[in-house]
TrEMBL record:
Pfam families according to UniProt: FMN_dh
Active site positions, chain numbering: H238
Cofactor: FMN
One GO MF term attached to the UniProt entry: oxidoreductase activity
Homology family: Belongs to the FMN-dependent alpha-hydroxy acid dehydrogenase family.
FMN hydroxy acid dehydrogenase domain: residues covered: 36-340
Protein known as: 2-hydroxy-acid oxidase
Source domain of life: Bacteria
InterPro entries on file: Aldolase_TIM (IPR013785), Alpha-hydoxy_acid_DH_FMN (IPR012133), FMN-dep_DH (IPR000262), FMN_HAD (IPR037396)
UniProt binding sites for FMN: K214, S236, D269, G270, G271, I272, R273
Keywords from the UniProt entry: Flavoprotein, FMN, Oxidoreductase
Binding site for glyoxylate: H238, R241
Organism: Tractidigestivibacter scatoligenes (Olsenella scatoligenes)
Amino acid sequence: MSYAELAEAARGQMGNCKACRVCDGRACRNCIPGPGAKGTGMVAIRNYDAWQSVMLHMDTIHEPYLPDTSVTLFGRKLSLPVMVGPLGDVNRHYGPKYDMETYNDVMLRAAAGAGSLGWTGDGLAASLHEGACRAISGLDGCGICTIKPWSKDVVRDKLRIALTAHPVAVAMDIDGAGLPFLKGQQPPAGAKGVSQLREIAKACHAADTPFVLKGIMTERGAEKAMKAGADGIVVSNHGGRVQDGVEATATVLPEISRAVGDDLVVLVDGGIRSGVDVFRALALGANAVLMCRPFVVAVYGGGGQGVMDLLAQLQGELADTMEMCGAETVSDITDDLVSW
Ligand SMILES: Cc1cc2nc3c(=O)[nH]c(=O)nc-3n(C[C@H](O)[C@H](O)[C@H](O)COP(=O)(O)O)c2cc1C
Protein backbone atom coordinates (compact mmCIF):
# COMPACT_ATOMS: atom_id res chain seq x y z
CA MET A 1 0.00 0.00 0.00
CA SER A 2 1.12 3.56 -0.61
CA TYR A 3 1.43 5.90 2.37
CA ALA A 4 -1.82 7.60 1.34
CA GLU A 5 -3.59 4.21 1.44
CA LEU A 6 -2.00 3.31 4.79
CA ALA A 7 -3.17 6.63 6.23
CA GLU A 8 -6.68 6.04 4.87
CA ALA A 9 -6.74 2.58 6.48
CA ALA A 10 -5.47 3.94 9.82
CA ARG A 11 -7.79 6.95 10.00
CA GLY A 12 -10.22 6.93 12.92
CA GLN A 13 -8.25 4.32 14.88
CA MET A 14 -5.40 6.47 16.16
CA GLY A 15 -6.78 8.50 19.05
CA ASN A 16 -5.78 12.15 18.64
CA CYS A 17 -3.79 11.45 15.44
CA LYS A 18 -5.79 12.26 12.29
CA ALA A 19 -3.58 10.05 10.06
CA CYS A 20 -3.20 12.87 7.55
CA ARG A 21 -2.02 12.23 3.97
CA VAL A 22 0.96 14.42 4.76
CA CYS A 23 2.14 14.33 8.36
CA ASP A 24 3.18 17.98 8.67
CA GLY A 25 2.20 18.77 12.26
CA ARG A 26 -0.72 21.02 11.26
CA ALA A 27 -3.74 18.93 12.23
CA CYS A 28 -2.42 17.75 15.62
CA ARG A 29 -0.64 21.05 16.40
CA ASN A 30 -0.11 21.03 20.22
CA CYS A 31 -2.08 17.92 21.03
CA ILE A 32 -0.21 16.07 23.81
CA PRO A 33 -1.20 13.37 24.87
CA GLY A 34 -1.28 12.67 21.17
CA PRO A 35 1.29 13.13 18.41
CA GLY A 36 1.43 16.94 18.58
CA ALA A 37 4.12 19.37 19.67
CA LYS A 38 4.58 21.49 22.80
CA GLY A 39 3.27 25.03 23.28
CA THR A 40 2.14 26.60 20.01
CA GLY A 41 2.86 23.37 18.13
CA MET A 42 4.86 25.36 15.58
CA VAL A 43 8.14 23.43 15.87
CA ALA A 44 6.79 20.28 14.21
CA ILE A 45 5.35 22.39 11.40
CA ARG A 46 8.65 24.28 11.07
CA ASN A 47 10.56 20.98 10.86
CA TYR A 48 8.43 19.82 7.93
CA ASP A 49 8.45 23.15 6.12
CA ALA A 50 12.23 23.59 6.39
CA TRP A 51 12.91 20.46 4.30
CA GLN A 52 10.55 21.78 1.62
CA SER A 53 12.66 24.90 1.20
CA VAL A 54 15.83 22.92 0.39
CA MET A 55 16.02 22.90 -3.41
CA LEU A 56 17.55 20.09 -5.44
CA HIS A 57 19.93 20.49 -8.38
CA MET A 58 19.02 18.15 -11.23
CA ASP A 59 21.74 16.57 -13.36
CA THR A 60 20.54 13.89 -15.71
CA ILE A 61 23.52 13.78 -18.07
CA HIS A 62 25.30 10.71 -16.77
CA GLU A 63 25.77 7.05 -17.66
CA PRO A 64 22.70 4.97 -16.77
CA TYR A 65 22.90 3.23 -13.37
CA LEU A 66 20.73 1.68 -10.70
CA PRO A 67 21.23 3.95 -7.66
CA ASP A 68 22.63 2.16 -4.62
CA THR A 69 20.71 3.39 -1.56
CA SER A 70 22.58 1.22 0.94
CA VAL A 71 24.55 2.66 3.84
CA THR A 72 26.69 1.19 6.63
CA LEU A 73 26.01 2.43 10.16
CA PHE A 74 27.53 1.17 13.39
CA GLY A 75 29.07 -1.71 11.43
CA ARG A 76 25.74 -2.81 9.95
CA LYS A 77 24.70 -2.52 6.30
CA LEU A 78 21.21 -1.07 5.80
CA SER A 79 19.40 -1.20 2.48
CA LEU A 80 18.44 2.46 2.82
CA PRO A 81 19.50 5.37 5.06
CA VAL A 82 16.17 5.44 6.89
CA MET A 83 15.37 3.97 10.32
CA VAL A 84 12.12 3.85 12.26
CA GLY A 85 12.32 6.39 15.09
CA PRO A 86 11.58 5.63 18.75
CA LEU A 87 8.09 5.92 20.16
CA GLY A 88 7.30 5.56 23.86
CA ASP A 89 3.88 4.85 25.31
CA VAL A 90 1.84 4.21 22.17
CA ASN A 91 -1.39 3.80 24.23
CA ARG A 92 -1.09 7.20 25.85
CA HIS A 93 -0.62 8.99 22.51
CA TYR A 94 -2.48 6.90 19.93
CA GLY A 95 -5.22 5.06 21.85
CA PRO A 96 -5.76 1.40 22.63
CA LYS A 97 -5.40 -0.41 19.26
CA TYR A 98 -1.76 -1.38 19.92
CA ASP A 99 -0.01 -2.00 23.19
CA MET A 100 3.67 -1.07 23.31
CA GLU A 101 4.94 -4.61 23.24
CA THR A 102 2.93 -5.52 20.14
CA TYR A 103 3.81 -2.23 18.41
CA ASN A 104 7.54 -2.76 19.03
CA ASP A 105 7.40 -6.37 17.99
CA VAL A 106 5.60 -5.62 14.71
CA MET A 107 7.71 -2.53 13.91
CA LEU A 108 11.15 -4.00 14.79
CA ARG A 109 10.55 -7.24 12.91
CA ALA A 110 9.31 -5.47 9.78
CA ALA A 111 12.09 -2.86 9.83
CA ALA A 112 14.75 -5.55 10.18
CA GLY A 113 13.07 -7.64 7.48
CA ALA A 114 13.27 -4.71 5.06
CA GLY A 115 16.98 -4.21 5.76
CA SER A 116 16.45 -1.20 8.02
CA LEU A 117 16.43 -0.90 11.81
CA GLY A 118 13.83 0.12 14.36
CA TRP A 119 14.48 2.22 17.45
CA THR A 120 12.45 1.74 20.63
CA GLY A 121 11.30 4.42 23.05
CA ASP A 122 10.97 4.69 26.80
CA GLY A 123 8.47 6.06 29.30
CA LEU A 124 7.40 6.27 32.94
CA ALA A 125 6.35 2.63 33.25
CA ALA A 126 9.41 0.37 33.64
CA SER A 127 7.66 -2.25 31.50
CA LEU A 128 8.02 -0.04 28.37
CA HIS A 129 11.82 -0.32 28.29
CA GLU A 130 11.85 -3.91 29.52
CA GLY A 131 9.44 -4.96 26.77
CA ALA A 132 11.44 -3.05 24.14
CA CYS A 133 14.65 -4.79 25.17
CA ARG A 134 12.91 -8.19 25.15
CA ALA A 135 11.71 -7.53 21.60
CA ILE A 136 15.20 -6.47 20.45
CA SER A 137 16.77 -9.46 22.14
CA GLY A 138 14.25 -11.74 20.40
CA LEU A 139 15.52 -10.38 17.07
CA ASP A 140 19.18 -11.09 17.88
CA GLY A 141 19.79 -7.47 18.82
CA CYS A 142 18.32 -6.05 15.62
CA GLY A 143 17.25 -2.67 16.97
CA ILE A 144 18.40 0.39 18.90
CA CYS A 145 16.90 1.17 22.29
CA THR A 146 16.51 4.66 23.65
CA ILE A 147 16.64 5.47 27.36
CA LYS A 148 15.35 8.73 28.80
CA PRO A 149 17.63 10.88 30.98
CA TRP A 150 16.35 9.48 34.28
CA SER A 151 18.15 9.77 37.60
CA LYS A 152 21.49 7.98 37.84
CA ASP A 153 20.25 4.78 39.50
CA VAL A 154 17.37 4.34 37.08
CA VAL A 155 19.67 4.87 34.08
CA ARG A 156 22.12 2.32 35.50
CA ASP A 157 19.37 -0.31 35.83
CA LYS A 158 17.89 0.42 32.40
CA LEU A 159 21.32 0.37 30.76
CA ARG A 160 22.02 -3.06 32.25
CA ILE A 161 18.75 -4.37 30.79
CA ALA A 162 19.52 -2.72 27.44
CA LEU A 163 23.03 -4.11 27.12
CA THR A 164 21.79 -7.63 27.90
CA ALA A 165 19.70 -7.41 24.71
CA HIS A 166 22.86 -6.74 22.62
CA PRO A 167 21.26 -3.98 20.53
CA VAL A 168 23.03 -2.38 17.55
CA ALA A 169 23.39 0.74 19.73
CA VAL A 170 22.00 2.32 22.88
CA ALA A 171 20.69 5.88 22.64
CA MET A 172 19.62 8.49 25.17
CA ASP A 173 17.08 11.14 24.23
CA ILE A 174 18.90 13.77 26.22
CA ASP A 175 16.14 16.31 25.53
CA GLY A 176 13.44 14.03 26.99
CA ALA A 177 13.11 15.91 30.29
CA GLY A 178 11.20 18.63 28.41
CA LEU A 179 8.24 16.33 27.75
CA PRO A 180 5.16 17.79 29.48
CA PHE A 181 3.99 14.41 30.81
CA LEU A 182 7.34 13.72 32.56
CA LYS A 183 7.25 16.89 34.67
CA GLY A 184 7.16 16.20 38.41
CA GLN A 185 6.79 12.43 37.89
CA GLN A 186 8.57 9.36 39.22
CA PRO A 187 11.16 8.38 38.20
CA PRO A 188 12.40 11.95 37.66
CA ALA A 189 14.09 12.89 34.37
CA GLY A 190 16.42 15.85 33.91
CA ALA A 191 19.57 17.29 32.41
CA LYS A 192 22.84 15.35 32.44
CA GLY A 193 26.37 16.71 32.42
CA VAL A 194 29.25 15.48 30.29
CA SER A 195 30.80 13.44 33.11
CA GLN A 196 27.65 11.38 33.73
CA LEU A 197 27.22 10.84 30.00
CA ARG A 198 30.84 9.73 29.80
CA GLU A 199 30.06 7.00 32.37
CA ILE A 200 27.16 5.80 30.24
CA ALA A 201 29.29 5.81 27.08
CA LYS A 202 32.00 3.87 28.93
CA ALA A 203 29.52 1.20 30.06
CA CYS A 204 28.26 0.85 26.47
CA HIS A 205 31.78 0.60 25.08
CA ALA A 206 32.69 -2.05 27.66
CA ALA A 207 29.87 -4.09 26.09
CA ASP A 208 31.07 -3.25 22.54
CA THR A 209 27.93 -1.19 21.96
CA PRO A 210 27.89 2.28 20.38
CA PHE A 211 26.27 5.10 22.36
CA VAL A 212 24.15 7.74 20.60
CA LEU A 213 22.86 11.05 21.97
CA LYS A 214 19.51 12.04 20.54
CA GLY A 215 18.31 15.64 20.82
CA ILE A 216 21.33 17.69 19.69
CA MET A 217 20.39 21.07 18.18
CA THR A 218 23.60 23.15 18.39
CA GLU A 219 27.30 22.89 17.57
CA ARG A 220 27.93 23.33 21.30
CA GLY A 221 25.74 20.34 22.09
CA ALA A 222 27.55 18.27 19.45
CA GLU A 223 30.93 19.19 20.93
CA LYS A 224 29.74 18.10 24.38
CA ALA A 225 28.48 14.83 22.88
CA MET A 226 31.98 14.25 21.46
CA LYS A 227 33.56 15.06 24.83
CA ALA A 228 31.21 12.56 26.46
CA GLY A 229 32.51 9.85 24.12
CA ALA A 230 29.30 9.37 22.11
CA ASP A 231 29.65 7.53 18.82
CA GLY A 232 26.74 9.28 17.16
CA ILE A 233 24.17 12.02 17.56
CA VAL A 234 20.64 12.55 16.35
CA VAL A 235 20.04 16.15 15.36
CA SER A 236 16.53 16.31 16.76
CA ASN A 237 14.12 18.53 18.66
CA HIS A 238 11.93 15.51 19.49
CA GLY A 239 9.47 16.60 16.82
CA GLY A 240 8.75 19.80 18.75
CA ARG A 241 7.54 17.91 21.82
CA VAL A 242 10.16 19.14 24.32
CA GLN A 243 10.59 22.88 23.71
CA ASP A 244 8.66 25.48 21.75
CA GLY A 245 10.40 28.22 19.76
CA VAL A 246 13.40 26.25 18.53
CA GLU A 247 14.89 26.01 15.03
CA ALA A 248 13.95 23.33 12.52
CA THR A 249 16.39 20.41 12.40
CA ALA A 250 17.12 21.08 8.68
CA THR A 251 18.27 24.59 9.61
CA VAL A 252 20.86 23.51 12.18
CA LEU A 253 22.02 20.28 10.50
CA PRO A 254 24.66 21.79 8.13
CA GLU A 255 26.57 23.65 10.87
CA ILE A 256 26.42 20.69 13.24
CA SER A 257 27.60 18.21 10.63
CA ARG A 258 30.45 20.57 9.65
CA ALA A 259 31.46 20.89 13.31
CA VAL A 260 31.68 17.14 13.96
CA GLY A 261 33.21 16.17 10.60
CA ASP A 262 33.78 12.42 10.46
CA ASP A 263 34.16 12.05 14.21
CA LEU A 264 30.53 11.10 14.87
CA VAL A 265 27.73 9.39 13.01
CA VAL A 266 25.23 12.18 12.31
CA LEU A 267 21.55 11.24 12.16
CA VAL A 268 18.62 13.63 11.89
CA ASP A 269 14.85 13.52 12.32
CA GLY A 270 11.84 15.82 12.39
CA GLY A 271 9.37 16.21 9.55
CA ILE A 272 11.22 14.00 7.05
CA ARG A 273 8.39 12.54 5.00
CA SER A 274 9.65 11.37 1.60
CA GLY A 275 12.66 9.99 -0.22
CA VAL A 276 13.22 13.52 -1.53
CA ASP A 277 13.48 14.72 2.09
CA VAL A 278 15.93 11.89 2.84
CA PHE A 279 18.07 13.08 -0.09
CA ARG A 280 17.93 16.64 1.31
CA ALA A 281 19.03 15.46 4.76
CA LEU A 282 21.96 13.50 3.37
CA ALA A 283 23.00 16.46 1.22
CA LEU A 284 22.99 18.68 4.33
CA GLY A 285 25.38 16.31 6.12
CA ALA A 286 23.41 13.46 7.71
CA ASN A 287 24.60 9.86 7.39
CA ALA A 288 21.03 8.61 7.72
CA VAL A 289 17.62 9.71 9.02
CA LEU A 290 14.95 8.62 11.48
CA MET A 291 11.24 8.92 10.84
CA CYS A 292 8.76 8.36 13.64
CA ARG A 293 5.14 9.50 13.27
CA PRO A 294 4.54 8.20 9.70
CA PHE A 295 5.63 4.72 10.78
CA VAL A 296 3.03 4.72 13.54
CA VAL A 297 0.45 5.42 10.84
CA ALA A 298 1.99 2.61 8.75
CA VAL A 299 1.67 0.12 11.64
CA TYR A 300 -1.93 1.15 12.41
CA GLY A 301 -2.90 1.08 8.73
CA GLY A 302 -1.03 -2.00 7.56
CA GLY A 303 0.82 -3.76 10.41
CA GLY A 304 4.29 -5.06 9.61
CA GLN A 305 3.50 -5.03 5.89
CA GLY A 306 2.69 -1.32 6.25
CA VAL A 307 6.16 -0.65 7.65
CA MET A 308 7.76 -2.57 4.80
CA ASP A 309 5.59 -0.77 2.25
CA LEU A 310 6.57 2.64 3.61
CA LEU A 311 10.26 1.74 3.64
CA ALA A 312 9.96 0.50 0.04
CA GLN A 313 8.20 3.72 -0.99
CA LEU A 314 10.93 5.85 0.62
CA GLN A 315 13.66 3.76 -1.00
CA GLY A 316 12.03 4.12 -4.41
CA GLU A 317 11.66 7.88 -4.02
CA LEU A 318 15.27 8.22 -2.86
CA ALA A 319 16.59 6.11 -5.76
CA ASP A 320 14.54 8.17 -8.21
CA THR A 321 15.91 11.42 -6.79
CA MET A 322 19.48 10.07 -6.85
CA GLU A 323 19.12 9.21 -10.53
CA MET A 324 17.69 12.65 -11.35
CA CYS A 325 20.47 14.48 -9.46
CA GLY A 326 23.43 12.40 -10.66
CA ALA A 327 24.18 10.50 -7.45
CA GLU A 328 24.98 6.81 -7.90
CA THR A 329 25.61 6.01 -4.23
CA VAL A 330 24.57 7.76 -1.01
CA SER A 331 28.11 9.09 -0.57
CA ASP A 332 27.62 11.00 -3.85
CA ILE A 333 24.83 13.01 -2.18
CA THR A 334 26.84 16.10 -1.29
CA ASP A 335 25.88 19.66 -0.42
CA ASP A 336 26.52 20.96 -3.95
CA LEU A 337 23.43 18.99 -5.05
CA VAL A 338 21.09 21.30 -3.10
CA SER A 339 20.71 24.94 -2.22
CA TRP A 340 19.14 26.22 0.98
C1 LIG B 1 3.97 10.05 20.48
C2 LIG B 1 5.46 10.17 20.38
C3 LIG B 1 6.26 9.47 21.29
C4 LIG B 1 7.66 9.57 21.21
N1 LIG B 1 8.43 8.86 22.10
C5 LIG B 1 9.78 8.96 22.02
C6 LIG B 1 10.63 8.21 22.92
O1 LIG B 1 10.17 7.48 23.78
N2 LIG B 1 11.96 8.38 22.79
C7 LIG B 1 12.52 9.20 21.87
O2 LIG B 1 13.75 9.32 21.79
N3 LIG B 1 11.75 9.90 21.00
C8 LIG B 1 10.41 9.80 21.06
N4 LIG B 1 9.63 10.50 20.19
C9 LIG B 1 10.27 11.42 19.23
C10 LIG B 1 10.49 10.77 17.88
O3 LIG B 1 11.31 9.64 17.94
C11 LIG B 1 11.09 11.77 16.86
O4 LIG B 1 12.29 12.29 17.39
C12 LIG B 1 10.14 12.92 16.55
O5 LIG B 1 8.80 12.51 16.51
C13 LIG B 1 10.51 13.61 15.23
O6 LIG B 1 10.37 12.77 14.14
P1 LIG B 1 9.05 12.74 13.21
O7 LIG B 1 8.77 14.16 12.82
O8 LIG B 1 9.46 11.87 12.04
O9 LIG B 1 7.95 12.16 14.02
C14 LIG B 1 8.25 10.40 20.23
C15 LIG B 1 7.43 11.07 19.32
C16 LIG B 1 6.06 10.97 19.39
C17 LIG B 1 5.22 11.69 18.38
